[in-house]
Design goal:
The structure holds two protein chains of two kinds. By secondary structure, chain A is an alpha+beta fold. Chain A contains 23 helices and 20 strands. Chain B contains 15 helices and 18 strands. Chain B has two domains: 225 residues, Uridine Diphospho-n-acetylenolpyruvylglucosamine Reductase, domain 3, CATH 3.30.465.10; 116 residues, 3-Layer(aba) Sandwich (Vanillyl-alcohol Oxidase, Chain A, domain 3). Classes of the chains: A alpha+beta, B alpha+beta. The complex binds flavin-adenine dinucleotide (2 copies).
């Protein structure tokens, strides 16, 4: 743990004020209290243990950020970088930290010809996408909403159906300007030796490796003050028109150039075959399997509306389970109208062979340009979290879905909402070489059960269980790195990635002050430990990390050499503390 | 015990050699870097276990390790600058798994382009690849070096996914989704996701010239082998004239393989190796031309070619600098049919490598740029080469668009006689001079090999400090390839 200064001293406060001016720093409780939860307003499990900052400070440029970081170093003040705070990890987990709100840094610079946009950390996706369209370009807006900061999102997630063509976010990051936790300002890619950010690699070994992994570090390796990202060609002869649909508004597609197709599939095998063949033929801009519950959620107008339909339809859904999921495909004529016609004929040919039956769908933006779905869609039941959102191969997506569903149905439903046997959202990524899988769990926070039976507590358990099942089955998971129980995943993956992960972090943050701690904190887990004792054979978080040897028995039983999975420190560290 | 004996215990005594005769070839390569010393010993491990043990041993005795995967080398990265153990991985040449549904193949570092591509073709696929490498070049090294493929079509780019690496520290590690317990036999993961665990480790050994660890296998994407191809040659008087048409074609996503070359490069790759055809081609080929291959996928290939050709015609009609759009090249009859195959395979093993045909050796000056800089850069390089006494009519120029033209790989080729010290010294001087001028004008040397690394890393000081911190975690004793990159 960092050496936390008990309180932000007057001297530290004055130093911060000298940097940004009195208008842009405060310790007013009315304001600091609002920096705990962010956009994910209620009942998200990751928020536990988050507390208000001692100070909020709002720098205007890189120089101020660098000075603030140096003040934090001088006074050993842990700090948390904040983009748009739509996510949940900007709430600090140690008392009296400094919230560095970057929302004033909203620059947006274009190199249209080379399809590059360079943004400041306060810039959000919505204007980026809008300005891109004016330039015959597009980018990937996260499924969860265009109100998220571009940098915050590129550093942590950036997943949507468009990953099919555009691939992983990390491969779309170009030149980067970065204030490290040790106060040093560095520049990556072509920015390292010039002022032009158009290229991301190197020089030499690529430091973008330190920016994030499958997910990000959630603010634990300093502050990115500028990031150039790849834009992609999307030339449309006319602009997409905004249209009103009752309370919602959306963008209407010019359907000679962009078009959705929904197919009802006769079986899971047909779904697989179609998704694979579409990818192999390199057609389409997005290919996915939409589970029935996502469609109910997408359409519900309120919590009551959701429950009034989902419950009564149980039998119908269970009966048609194998065939209820929709294969949904987006085609775009990037080159010309004829491209769309060509791709449509290939798509129809594939669907004919596997027995896909074309249904109706609206020709408007659902989830990649405007993203009006972001807030409502996620909470129809009241409480929600994604316990998994991982990229691996298509077969892995199906397997991971079955594993998580079985676990959930046998141990956690109710109080978690019954999905009636459905296994989650699957979409193709990297032109079908891989596939994205997401598994949401939902609950009604007003469910009349006791504390340890409530949805939120069960959600926590399911989240830990998801890490354990990943280890058991050799499945990849989003719950690695700082979003995981390091005692579980640290030794198992790599193996022993936990050791070098922590070491590289320490190398750039020797004081451990950039959004500590490294992983989810013991006080959060300890709260659940008594209940988990029987299931998981550990008592406290500390036990889990250092003495809970039970997890490797699972590996041994599957014939995996346990010693390969254990770090040396697991056995012989005597300080009993990571970091 | 002597180092040789200790290594023999690991790999068997027939797979280790410390004689001068064995070591000498490893002190020479195709680069201009001089290497006076010899390595201490060369060892040929057969699997990752042996590699692991060798790296652990090297840590105990603090001896450098230089992993070598290809047979011939171009950039001085494998020269034993401070002695040590040459770890030649050519015995590790197994194609470990071919995953057809996900189009992923797992290969050891000794697998060459000459070996992999025919195997892929047998199942109707291919790995996208750089311009006509040596058949004996390692595929894994090519990916580690971030060599640029001739096919700029894929937005998601980057064919490499997960890897196994033995870090310089001696830790054995799997990256990406291959990091799951039990990979590959007892796991659901196929290693398709390059990222994590935790952070993106693979980025640290890419572009690292062996300074971080030894990769013992990599997983690589492969794509369908087109059913139908049609090659077009779009010709120009000057390099500058080709740029705007290239931007337009790329932006509209027309075609698969696409590159711009001058007649010098054309004469070398299209000829039969004889001086006569070389001279004839140099006379007849247009000064500059774009090679563009339109390809048809497994279904309705003709329809795809038709809409792409229509778009190509639209682009060219609006570009006054386009001289001609041809289906064949003067002086190279029938080439249009062979070219797609040539671009999807390495240079034939039995023939002298195209870059070496003219004078025996070739120095490549290569970097990343924007296409709009190509004309000015070419002028600058031509002027510099001329000033050093190089015959600029024999300068090869190759521009490779990357990802729909957002950037490009530029390559200037200078041919010289390795036996002629004056010739060699002249090329070296012009190379250094041109590189310094280009660097000043904003060329980005993303892989600054030996001769250029001080120039680049001195300027990128903050970057260099930080990458050194990462190095200290992954290779704390600095045993991996000392003298390369900035270490
Ligand atoms: C309901 C819901 C649905 C979601 N769905 C999706 C989805 O479909 N796809 C997707 O990609 N994401 C999704 N997300 C995740 C989320 O939208 C973004 O990835 C994330 O919130 C980033 O944007 P932000 O502006 O909120 O960043 P913040 O929340 O402000 O920051 C995210 C993290 O990065 C750190 N950070 C922010 N800025 C910087 C910086 N400049 N330098 C260093 N560290 C920084 C912060 O400390 C924090 O830990 C979803 C989130 C929610 C709540
Ligand atoms: C949290 C969440 C995130 C989401 N993110 C995305 C996203 O990123 N991208 C995205 O595109 N969507 C996303 N969705 C789903 C999206 O909002 C739509 O609900 C979904 O794509 C279905 O679209 P639709 O309205 O055309 O289909 P529906 O309204 O369900 O169906 C339209 C028509 O299709 C036909 N149909 C119905 N069932 C079948 C069937 N089994 N087979 C064939 N045809 C059938 C019927 O004729 C029906 O009238 C998300 C949903 C949720 C809950």
């Amino acid at each position: 743990m960092p050496k936390v200064t008990e309180k932000v001293s007057k001297a530290a406060y004055n130093a911060l004020q000298n940097i940004v001016g009195p208008e842009w720093v405060t310790d007013d409780v009315a304001i600091t209290e609002s920096y705990v939860k962010g956009g994910e307003i209620h009942d998200c499990i990751y928020q536990r243990g988050q507390q208000p900052p001692g100070v909020v400070v709002m720098p205007k440029d890189t120089e101020e950020v660098q000075k603030i970081v140096k003040v934090c170093m001088r006074y050993h003040l842990p700090y948390t970088p904040i983009g748009a705070f739509w996510g949940v990890h900007c709430g600090g987990k140690v008392p009296f930290h400094v919230s560095i709100d970057l929302s004033r840094m909203r620059s947006l610079e274009w190199d249209e010809k080379h399809m590059v946009a360079m943004v400041g950390p306060g810039q959000i996706h919505s204007p980026l996408q809008a300005e891109a369209q004016e330039r015959g370009l597009y980018t990937m807006t996260p499924g969860g909403g265009s109100q998220a900061a571009v940098i915050g999102n590129m550093l942590t997630c950036n997943y949507s159906p468009l990953n099919y063509r555009l691939g992983l976010a990390t491969r779309r990051i170009l030149g980067v300007e970065w204030v490290l936790p040790n106060g040093e300002l560095i520049r990556l890619g072509s920015l390292a030796t010039s002022d032009d950010p158009y290229w991301g690699e190197g020089p030499g070994p690529d430091l973008r490796g330190l920016l994030r992994g499958y997910l990000g570090w959630w603010g634990k390796v300093g502050i990115i003050t500028k990031m150039a990202i790849k834009m992609h060609p999307l030339f449309l002869p006319e602009r997409m028109k905004p249209v009103e649909r009752g309370m919602l508004s959306t963008l209407e597609f010019p359907d000679n150039r962009i078009k959705w197709y929904n197919f009802r599939m006769p079986s899971e095998d047909a779904m697989r075959d179609a998704m694979r063949e579409i990818s192999r033929c390199e057609i389409g801009a997005a290919v996915m399997r939409v589970p029935t519950i996502w469609r109910y959620r997408g359409k519900s107008r309120s919590r009551e509306d959701f429950w009034s339909k989902w419950g009564p339809d149980e039998k119908k859904i269970r009966d048609s389970r194998a065939t209820s999921s929709v294969c949904r495909v987006l085609l775009i004529g990037y080159t010309s109208e004829e491209q769309l016609q060509y791709e449509e004929s290939v798509l129809m040919g594939i669907m004919d062979e596997v027995g896909g039956e074309l249904g109706r769908t609206k020709q408007s933006d659902q989830s990649w340009i405007k993203n009006a779905d972001s807030a409502g869609m996620w909470w129809p039941a009241g409480g929600y979290v994604s316990v998994e959102f991982v990229v691996e191969t298509l077969e892995h997506s199906f397997a991971r879905g079955k594993t998580l569903l079985a676990e959930k149905e046998s141990k956690f439903t109710p109080p978690l909402v019954d999905e009636y046997g459905e296994e989650g959202w699957i979409q193709m990524t990297d032109m079908g070489h891989t596939s994205y899988f997401e598994f949401l769990i939902q609950w009604d926070p007003e469910h009349p059960l006791g504390k340890y039976e409530s949805g939120e507590y069960k959600a926590w358990e399911h989240w830990v269980a998801s890490q354990r099942t990943a280890i058991d089955h050799g499945q990849f998971t989003a719950n690695i790195g700082s979003l995981s129980v390091m005692g579980l995943t640290g030794p198992a993956f790599g193996p022993n990635y936990g050791v070098i992960y922590d070491k590289v972090r320490q190398a750039v943050d020797p004081l451990d002050i950039s959004n500590p701690p490294l992983d989810l904190h013991d006080r959060v887990i300890d709260e659940f430990a008594p209940k988990w004792k029987e299931d998981y054979d550990f008592q406290t978080w500390t036990d889990l990390m250092h003495d809970g040897k039970e997890w490797w028995k699972v590996l041994t039983s599957r014939g995996i050499e346990w010693k390969d999975c254990l770090p040396e420190w697991y056995w012989d560290r005597d300080d009993k503390e990571i970091g | 015990m002597q180092i040789k004996a200790k290594l023999a215990e690991i790999v068997g005594k027939e797979h280790v050699d410390a004689t001068r005769k064995a070591l000498l070839p490893y002190s020479k390569d195709h680069s201009l870097l001089e290497c006076n010393g010899l390595a201490d010993v060369v060892v040929w491990p057969d699997d990752a276990d042996q590699v692991h043990k060798i790296v652990q041993l090297a840590n105990e005795i603090k001896m450098p390790v230089i992993p070598v995967s290809s047979e011939q080398h171009f950039h001085g990265s494998t020269l034993p600058k401070m002695g040590g153990i040459i770890m030649d991985l050519k015995r590790m040449n197994r194609i470990l798994d071919v995953d057809v549904p996900d189009r992923l193949v797992r290969i050891e570092p000794g697998v060459t382009w000459g070996q992999l591509q025919p195997e892929m073709n047998k199942i109707g696929h291919r790995v996208v690849m750089p311009l006509m490498p040596l058949a004996s070049s390692s595929v894994v090294s090519s990916l580690l070096e971030r060599e640029v493929p001739t096919n700029p079509r894929y937005e998601y780019g980057e064919p490499m996914t997960s890897n196994e690496v033995i870090w310089g520290s001696g830790m054995r590690f799997r990256t990406g989704s291959a990091s799951v317990p039990g990979f590959p036999d007892k796991a659901d993961s196929r290693g398709g996701n390059p990222e994590g665990p935790g952070t993106n480790w693979y980025r640290f050994f890419q572009g690292a010239e062996g300074t971080m660890g030894v990769v013992t296998w990599s997983i690589v994407k492969f794509e369908y082998l087109p059913e139908l191809d049609k090659t077009y040659f779009i010709t120009f008087d000057k390099i500058g004239d080709a740029i705007e048409p290239l931007y337009q074609m790329q932006r509209r996503m027309i075609g698969n393989e696409c590159l711009l070359i001058n007649n010098q490069v054309g004469a070398l790759i299209f000829g039969d190796g004889s001086d006569k055809t070389y001279q004839a081609l140099k006379r007849q080929l247009p000064p500059w031309f774009i090679v563009l291959v339109l390809s048809g996928p497994p279904r309705s290939p003709e329809a795809k070619l038709a809409y792409e050709k229509k778009a190509l015609d639209e682009v060219c009609a609006n570009q006054p600098t386009v001289l001609r759009v041809d289906e064949s090249l003067p002086g190279a009859v029938g080439l249009e049919r062979k070219l797609p195959g040539m671009l999807r395979n390495p240079w034939p093993a039995e023939r002298t490598y195209w870059k070496h045909q003219l004078k025996g050796e070739c120095e490549d000056l290569l970097f990343i740029a924007k296409m709009e800089q190509a004309a000015a850069f070419t002028e600058l390089v031509t002027e510099t080469a001329g000033a050093h006494g190089y015959d600029v009519r024999q300068m090869g120029v190759y521009l490779q668009p990357i990802e729909q033209g957002r950037a490009c790989h530029m390559e200037y080729q200078f041919y010289y006689d390795p036996e002629d010290e004056t010739d060699k010294a002249m090329v070296k001087a012009l190379y250094m001079d041109a590189a310094a001028k280009l660097f000043e004008q904003g060329a980005f040397f993303s892989r600054p090999y030996s001769l250029l690394s001080p120039m680049v890393f001195d300027k990128a000081r903050g970057y260099t400090n930080t990458i050194t911190k990462v190095k200290e975690v992954l290779d704390p004793n600095y045993i991996m390839c000392p003298g390369n990159v900035c270490f």
